[in-house]
Amino acid sequence: MSEIVGEVGRQEEDTQKGKFLTFLVGKEEYGIEIKYVTEIIGGIQAITEVPEVPEYVKGIINLRGKIIPVMDVNLRFRKDARDYDDRTCIIVIDIDDLSVGLIVDNVAEVVSIADEEIVPPPDARAGFQNRYIKGIGKAGNAVKLLLDCQRLLSNEHLESLHQFPDQPK
Fold first, then answer.
1. Rounded distance, CA 136 to CA 158, Å?
2. CATH 2.40.50.180 fits 20-162, yes or no
3. How does pLDDT run across 58-100, given as a tens digit for each residue?
4. CA 164 to CA 50: how far, in whole Å?
5. At 102, is the secondary structure helix, strand, or coil?
6. Among 38, 43, 59, 94, which is disulfide-ready with 49 (CB 3.0 to 4.6 Å)?
7. pTM for the whole thing?
8. Counting runs of H as helices and runs of E as strands, what totals does the chain give?
9. What is the domain partition of the chain in residue ranges?
């Protein structure tokens, strides 16, 4: 029986391999591996501010009884704050048993990008210093900056996010 469960898990993983949810932050289009995405919330719902968290953590939301911290990706990337509008979305991701909402300007689409179409980001010596980018994917004529979810939620800030109720320690 455990072999069957393991095989089903591998098949699910295979169907998600190479698929990325793309979204806009400012004028740039980013992608995040679909395996991390649990939900997309259209529009901004009520966010409760929490004291003594990094500036980019806007607060917490109640998602069907589960308390989830939300971060503004514009602020996380040290861009100017933007007003939220009807295109603003929250992408709920799950990293190492921690659910976090990412506030983005607009969700675009799910795209398939083969491994051979993904190149590493330019070297820091070339002036490219964005530690959140895992790779650059080529989808048709477009380029997508592919995020490294593990680095987006850096260790120093994971502790502050784990302080919220309903988050495993």
1. 25
2. yes
3. 999 999 889 999 999 999 888 888 889 999 999 999 987 889 9
4. 9
5. strand
6. 59
7. 0.80
8. 4, 11
9. 20-162
